[in-house]
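In this section we walk through a basic example: taking a raw amino acid sequence and producing a predicted 3D structure, encoded as discrete structure tokens. The instruction is simple. Fold the sequence below.
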Amino acid sequence: LDVAPYYPGGWGLLGAVQYFNGRIDDAVDSLEFALATEPESPSVLLTMAHCLYTKNNYKAALEYFHKYNAADPSDPDYLNMANCYYRLGDTDLAIEYLDKIVIDMTKQPINDDEFYHIFNIAETYYFCNFPQKSIQILEYLLQGSPENTDVLMFYGTCKLAVGDLETASVFFSQMLYLVDDYWQNLLSVATAFASYGPFEIAIDIVNSVLKYVSVHNHESDRLESAYAIMALAQFNSCNHQEFLKYLKLACNLTPQLVQQLF
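The resulting token sequence is shown next.
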């Protein structure tokens, strides 16, 4: 380009290479040169939009996403536009653009790129406070990938958000057997249930954890907290005999945690 600065497509290609190598500022400079000679190039406009998005300049990124969509309406980037609007605080427009995305939920299997693109759509719906729409998309993904840990974990989170606590606890418990040391995360979830209810779900989760770690011979100081959490859940459930049983264990193992919880 030093020799032939007006070589067709040269600056746009250079900008794309710089973008994919993480040289965002250099890419923006190159793309500005490209746009001076190719102001309606879809690839240049889209790459510039992605660069600005990466720089958290969402307002400017939207400008280029709109220009890209006008230049090539056959393949609009509605997901990133929705994310821009969400990050700018305009949830209504974010949802409007998410709703424009058509997902063929009859198509199975799907490749990894499609899978995580669709997963990102579900995430954005959740961030925009529409977890029910996220659940519909995640259920589609689970049809083809029933043991995908990202989807299972997020599905449980969405079920919590819509108040389906029993289903959430089932999915969180499934994670025990799919992710090493996930039981530690589950104890955090159980603590919330033990404190605020439903208390029986906290009891189910702690029982699942204790069963899992006994079978797999896990040893950890963190596991000792399970007894204090169980004691709290049993106390709030008015199961006094079980409460005293676990409280005695907890006082011996984690007296400071007992003081915090009670």
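Looking at the output, two observations stand out. The longest helix spans residues 199-216. The chain has 15 helices and no strands. In the next section we compare this with other chains.
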